[in-house]
Amino acid sequence: MADKTEKQDMAWRAIGGLVGLATAWGARKVIGFAWEKTTGRKPPADNESLDISLAEAIGYAVVMGVGMQVAQIVVARTARRRYNAWKSLKDTAREVAS
């Protein structure tokens, strides 16, 4: 039983890791696009550059940080819910087949 649980945990870790990477990539693209449409400027590539104002650097960091975290929470919770539903359905099918 412990071996089965470990395999399920490893499966979720792999799925969660891939979902996290995809979410981070997608959220960065969406937030960067929204920043450009809102401000009319490309997102700052280097927040330490003196060519970028302090307010813009901090504003972008805050928007990116909050946006990335919200996207990760929403997607991770949705993925976990779907995984649990799939696992439950699979376990139910196994019990019916027995």
What can you tell me about this protein's structure?
The chain is mainly α. 84% of the residues lie in helices and 0% in strands. The protein contains two helices and no strands. The two termini are 17 Å apart. The mean pLDDT is 84.
Question: From N to C, what is the helix and strand string?
Answer: HH
**Rg result:** 20 Å
Distance between the termini: 17 Å
Low-pLDDT runs of 5+ residues are none
Q: Strand portion, in percent? A: under 5%
H/I helix tally: 2
Helix content: over 70%
- Structural category is mainly alpha
What's the rounded overall pLDDT mean?
84
Task: Report the count of strand segments.
Answer: 0
Described by strand count, sense and barrel closure, the largest sheet is:
none
Shape: elongated
Give a topology summary.
Elements: H1 2-39, H2 54-97
What structural keywords apply?
98 residues; 2 helices; mainly alpha; elongated
Task: Offer a concise description of the structure.
With 98 residues, the protein is mainly α. It has 2 helices and no strands. The mean pLDDT is 84.
